[in-house]
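WARN no homologs supplied; continuing
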Amino acid sequence: MKLVIYNLENSYTSAERVGRRSIRMNYDSGAMYLSSKLAKDLGISLNDRLEFANDESNPKDWYLHKTTEEQGFPLQVNKGGVRLRSKFICKTVLDMAKIKDNATFLGSKDPVETEQGTFYKIIVSCPILTKRKPKAKS
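OK structure emitted
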């Protein structure tokens, strides 16, 4: 049996994500929102795009990478922050984390340098679950 231990160090509430590097993922729509801290650390500007990377040798490790290549996911940058959309990425990451709802993941403090560039790890082992508001009755 392999246990995952949760304690004060790895258990966060949604209020604790404020001011941290984070990416919020919407399971249904595929919308993703980058915190202003993560966007600043990535150095996001108007014409940038994002790529996601998955480590073949450790499939639970996911990374973010800023790019200007056309294949990257286009970003919407405005006063409200940075947004992008990909149902495939959201569902793949959330399914891998065994989450069937919306969640926020923290981003690593230190980037990982590879031949392909600078990547920030998405810490999927410690999701911050987002509570949905109950649907209004008709």
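DSSP finds two helices and ten strands in the chain.
OK
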